[in-house]
Amino acid sequence: MKKNLFAVAGTLVALSLGLASMVHAEEDYKKFGVRMRAIYVAPAEKFDSQLSGAKATVSDDVIPELDLEYFFLKNVSTELILGVTRHDIKFADQFVGTTWLLPPTLTVKYHPLAGETISPYVGVGLNYTIPFKSKVEGAPDFEIDNSIGWAAQAGVDVKIKDNLYFNLDYKYINADTKIRLAAGGPKYKLDLNPNLFGIGVGYRF
Length: 205
What we know:
Elements: H1 2-22, E1 32-43, E2 46-47, E3 56-58, E4 61-73, E5 76-82, E6 85-91, E7 94-102, E8 105-110, E9 118-136, E10 143-144, E11 147-161, E12 164-173, E13 176-180, E14 187-191, E15 194-204
Antiparallel strand pairs: 1-4, 1-15, 2-14, 3-6, 4-5, 5-8, 6-7, 7-9, 8-9, 9-11, 10-13, 11-12, 12-15, 13-14
């Protein structure tokens, strides 16, 4: 798993450096962009089979998301995705606790119809999920580990006017982590793997 992640990271770095070296000053396109989205976050959670009796689930959330984008080329950009989510933890549909997740994600995106009124894109990248303020009733030492995983992305920008865009976006984040219910106790597998459905507006300059 770690080897695969390092391979993806190395590929992304090499691709970014290669694209940066290809940029020419005379190219006429707007390189920087900022975007605000409303995001529906739906974890596709899967708990360790040893916890199957608890029927544990993690709730969905709706959040604001800030995205910063830079175009290496007219058709290729990189995007940094920032947001914080809050999720209820339930056992057998009964509320037992909460966790907050900070999942900064960096993707490289390809825009085959860049500059057109309707401009779809696809992307792939890396995610680092940081759980914090995690708590479960009756488990004062409950904790969730950080995780590193890959991310996939697809969406479309629709030009409203020269610098302003309407955006629809979907992302899948691979966030496989572990939880511990008691200090010194065993760790149990938890795959959060959220699906993110976004709608928003962006400004490019």
